[in-house]
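Title: Comparing notes on inverse folding

I've been comparing how different people in this forum approach sequence design from structure. To keep things fair, I'm posting one structure and asking everyone to reply with a full sequence. Here's the target:
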């Protein structure tokens, strides 16, 4: 996670950063459930996650989503792992703030 990216984008406003990261974590719970199986909407979910991830500085997650879009459903385990890692990093960051 590149928290400096998000902090810079939010012009250092800690409240905005906290709100964005809290919203991301809430959405991640819903996304996680949508990624359990390769149902018909998985590509849309992965594309949504990719945009949100890049917006908050979760570059590894964005890259995992891009790879899944390219290779197909076999890329979903990488997306799930990167999503879990991003949420864990956000939780640790918020605990320090």
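Reply #1:
Here's my take.
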């Amino acid at each position: 996670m590149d928290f400096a990216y998000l902090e810079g984008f939010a012009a250092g406003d800690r409240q905005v950063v906290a709100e964005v990261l809290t919203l991301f974590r809430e959405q991640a719970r819903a996304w996680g459930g949508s990624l359990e199986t390769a149902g018909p909407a998985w590509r849309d979910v992965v594309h949504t996650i990719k945009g949100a991830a890049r917006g908050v500085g979760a570059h590894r997650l964005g890259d995992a989503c891009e790879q899944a879009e390219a290779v197909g459903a076999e890329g979903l385990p990488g997306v799930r792992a990167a999503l879990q890692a991003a949420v864990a990093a956000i939780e640790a960051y918020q605990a320090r703030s």
